[in-house]
Here is the input.
Amino acid sequence: MAPADSPFQSPQQRSKARAAKREAVLRAAVQMFNERGFHQTSLDDVAASLGISKPTIYHYLGNKDQVLLECVTIGLSQLLEAAEESRRSAGNGAQRLIAFLTRYAQVNMDDFGRCVVRTGSEALGPESRAQFQALKRKIDTAMRELIEEGVADGSLAPTDTKLLGFALAGALNWPGRWHDPKGALQPAQIAEQLVAMLAQGFLPR
Amino acid sequence: MAPADSPFQSPQQRSKARAAKREAVLRAAVQMFNERGFHQTSLDDVAASLGISKPTIYHYLGNKDQVLLECVTIGLSQLLEAAEESRRSAGNGAQRLIAFLTRYAQVNMDDFGRCVVRTGSEALGPESRAQFQALKRKIDTAMRELIEEGVADGSLAPTDTKLLGFALAGALNWPGRWHDPKGALQPAQIAEQLVAMLAQGFLPR
Here is the structure.
């Protein structure tokens, strides 16, 4: 390892610096995609906002399609992680589903989750699109498995699993479009209230 | 009026022919926007699919931004019409809301409704965007009024009107993304089942 005052970076330092730069580019890109729309954003704009050049972005991440794929992959990984965490948590099926949905809604109000919600698969090139759709199918599957477990242990009402999955996903993706990150309501509150509405239904009990 | 065998069209015939041509262009455009994405569709493609030239589209509808605005305006008008019809219908607030939501979901699986769901406002130019957003606000308002009427007459559970409106809109916009018009399930069935899930909630009653 290089001594602390060496003008040369150690391999660890180089790798850490590289990861930090990559993340800074992704963060700047995802925020611009969310605000202006993917098609209205150029990598030149992203580069300019960081005081770097477009070739630097190519170096760290690749072309615009690859940058978008990376952004949505981060968002989808956060959703998958939420599903895995809920699967491991205590409680009955309904409680695990509610824990997952609450986290799911929150992720969709974060930078990378918003990007997933705002990205139509037609925006990506054929190869990236296939990866994007495969990851989304994994989330759909995880959601359906959680529902099935709840129906199996009697904590959820018997239902059309696929359709309920779509209903829940739709209701909880939507905040990625309407929620204003500068607004008064916190994502955690919104998520909790939305999930309670879906759990209880709008007809009086 | 020109006699039936005249080689010249009457004003009525001309106006009818013009409306039919306008509609054919809109139908071809909206289907291509939905299938390929707005940014991946050129008016040249739309024109070619009808065996006409791009200037003919300009003549009937204007530029691509204006064509998109017209498509989403038709979709949003269908949603508004559904709201007005439900307001006039018999039954208590919950029944009127359910009638509206069922029609709302169906429209979102039609060509023009799908286009509304798939269009982010950033795709439109500033002026068209303002019109698009104003119309969407009208639908939000209509949805909230229906909810408030149901809470007022006791047929709906007391709730955060705005948030419930977003939850319902999200769940029922989503089919405009996932529903396959060539799939086995009919829009009317899907709409009815989705609305029942939202009304009942996923916890057993």
